[in-house]
Specification:
Elements: E1 7-8, H1 10-18, E2 28-30, H2 34-43, E3 48-49, E4 55-57, E5 70-73, E6 89-91, H3 93-107, E7 112-119, E8 127-133, H4 136-145, H5 151-155, E9 161-166, E10 183-187, E11 192-196, H6 202-215, E12 222-230, E13 236-240, H7 247-251, E14 257-260, E15 263-267, E16 270-273, E17 277-281, H8 291-296, E18 303-305, E19 308-309, E20 316-317, E21 328-332, E22 344-345, E23 348-355, E24 365-368, H9 370-379, E25 381-384, E26 397-400, H10 413-427, E27 430-435, E28 438-439, E29 448-449, H11 452-463, E30 472-474, E31 481-483, H12 491-494, H13 496-499, H14 503-521, H15 530-534
Parallel strand pairs: 2-7, 4-18, 5-6, 5-10, 8-9, 9-11, 13-23, 23-27
Antiparallel strand pairs: 1-2, 3-4, 7-8, 10-11, 12-13, 12-14, 12-15, 15-16, 16-22, 17-21, 18-21, 19-20, 24-27, 25-26, 28-29, 30-31
Helix pairs in contact: 2-4, 9-10
Length: 540
């Protein structure tokens, strides 16, 4: 890991932050190393070092994203390009200005921590990001998650976007033109993000992801909420999927090189990682099932969010959901033994759409035609897993999240959908729909999730070409092509209906899900071609 350069206090540091409207600050801790940030975090009682060496912190009431508190400043430069609605909510520039002034006043006399980072492994599309935080641990989070410049690159670092992260500052809700005390506001004109009222550090990374999702299409780069890896022969694969679908777990394959676990771009030259780290869900994580990710929870430099530990021994209990089911580990990409040194790969040979089907009726794996791929990409069916968002109940909730990342996509879905269609047509990759959810019944009815080992075996067969020559059976309900056999997988597992004891109940639930697909896709019907509509799910 590149050793960070520290500038602590002084006029030089102060001058650099005046450009962001920050003045009369306390000590300014600039680009501290992980060890120095550990020391500051412990001294300030922000976190505790666990037995393995990781720094664990509690984020309080906010243990996940706050989607209702996320806004974009509505200005003439972006107005016609944003898909305004319940996800991309507009806010007036005056509101941003008021809160920016309040942030500046709040930070006067307070110590701050600054990280200068890159977002984007490809230098052609890289974004210079400055993250200013009031806590040391959140600054370590930023250092882990983004790409760390060299000492030389930091000398003349010019930030293109800046995040001001102030969890201790609460908004006034409706009086400020907001929904609550929490705020996450992006201003594309000011090139700044304000985050307040929440300690959940995921808001930092997701804000930058949303910014890149807005900027990159204008550079003919498709931004993607996906993980990616590459085989020994250079065959790349990308994995779309929301939190809880196994995106991070399945891309961490010891036989393949990990490009990244969450956010990538697809340019004319291939794919590239946006980040320099991983932000993995670790609830119920076992060393046996996921040894690589487990190892990161036991080492110095990892930040653990809301993970329970024994106060006497400080040993972790990764199965304890007392604080939240959305427990997280944030660590540098190089903590994974098979991580890529470059964050770059060729055009993907395989595209995997991951879903956690809470109803337990979708097949564990099926091969999609290009038209079906477009349909399911726009649909983005999955299940919200408890705890990934504030206010979500204890039971999984079936949902459709456009492009498998609707909360982070500022532009209209068809912008990203058309970019996928163009790339599928040009580069001829195979596309697979993989269900990592339930089998033999619905969630909450005593059914079990599909074993990780089974999913890995099916993916291995898909990626190495073993399924290319296998006979396929068309599913009568969803119109999906299901392999009749797969190495190391019992045949009845491949056919979801056969896994149910009560097949009549399966038929009822499957038919209901078909209706959900059909109703959801009505929003896209006017903007897609007839061949994509024909490839969709229509049974009523």
């Amino acid at each position: 890991m590149e050793e960070a350069v520290a500038i602590i206090g002084g006029a030089e540091a102060g001058r650099h932050l005046k450009m962001h409207g920050l003045d009369n600050l306390g000590s300014i801790h600039w680009n501290l190393s992980a060890a120095a940030l550990y020391q500051e975090a412990i001294t300030r009682r922000e976190g505790i070092v666990t037995a393995g060496g990781a720094l664990t912190v509690s984020t309080g009431v906010h243990t996940g994203r706050s989607p209702n508190d996320k806004f974009i400043v509505d200005s003439p430069s972006v107005h016609n390009n944003i898909d305004w609605g319940s996800i991309n909510k507009p806010v007036k520039a005056e509101v941003f200005e008021l809160l920016h002034q309040r942030v500046s006043a709040y930070l006067q006399g307070r110590d701050v921590f600054v990280q200068d980072c890159f977002a984007g492994a490809d230098p052609k599309y890289r974004l210079n990001v400055r993250v200013v935080t009031e806590s040391a641990w959140a600054n370590l989070f930023a250092q882990n998650m983004f790409i760390r410049p060299s000492k030389e690159q930091r000398v003349d670092f010019n930030p293109e976007f800046t995040i001001l992260h102030v969890p201790g500052l609460l908004a006034r809700g409706l009086d400020d033109g907001l929904n609550s005390e929490t705020f996450v506001i992006v201003d594309f004109d000011r090139k700044m993000v304000l985050v307040g009222g929440t300690n959940y550090a995921g808001e930092i990374k997701k804000s930058i992801f949303g910014i890149l999702n807005y900027l990159l299409p204008d550079q003919n780069v498709m931004p993607m909420h996906c993980s990616a890896n590459v085989g020994k022969d250079g065959d790349a694969a990308i994995f779309f999927g929301l939190s809880g679908t196994g995106k991070t777990t399945l891309s961490a394959d010891s036989t393949r090189t990990l490009i990244g676990d969450d956010e990538h771009g697809w340019s004319d030259g291939g794919i590239f990682n946006f980040e320099g780290g991983c932000y993995a869900k670790v609830i119920n994580l076992s060393e046996e099932a996921e040894p690589d990710i487990f190892s990161t929870t036991q080492r110095f430099g990892t930040v653990l969010e809301n993970v329970v530990f024994d106060p006497a021994t400080r040993e972790l209990d990764l199965f304890d959901k007392t604080l939240t089911e959305n427990t997280r580990a944030c660590y540098p990409l190089e903590f994974m033994a098979n991580a890529s040194d470059t964050g770059l790969a060729n055009h993907p040979d395989n595209i995997v759409l991951l879903t956690a089907d809470a109803f337990g009726v979708l097949p564990p794996i099926s091969k999609l035609t290009p038209e079906q791929a477009m349909y399911h990409f726009l649909s983005g069916y999955t299940a919200k897993v408890a705890g990934t968002e504030k206010g979500l109940g204890s039971q999984p909730e079936a949902t459709f999240s456009t492009c498998f990342g609707a909360p982070f996509m500022p532009r209209r879905p068809t912008v990203y959908g058309e970019m996928l269609r163009e790339r599928l047509s040009k580069h001829k990759g195979s596309c697979w729909l993989v269900n990592t959810g339930w089998s033999g019944g619905s969630a909450g009815d005593g059914a079990q999730r599909i074993k990780i080992a089974h999913t890995r075996a099916m993916l291995r067969a898909a990626l190495n070409g073993s399924l290319a020559s296998v006979a396929m059976t068309s599913d009568n309900c969803f119109g999906l092509n299901i392999p009749e056999q797969c190495p190391d997988i019992p045949a009845d597992i491949l056919q979801p209906r056969k896994a149910w004891k009560d097949v009549k109940k399966y038929d009822v639930i499957a038919s209901d899900l078909c209706v959900r697909f059909s109703n959801n896709f009505k929003q896209f019907e006017a903007g897609v071609s007839k061949d994509i509509l024909a490839a969709g799910i229509h049974r009523v």
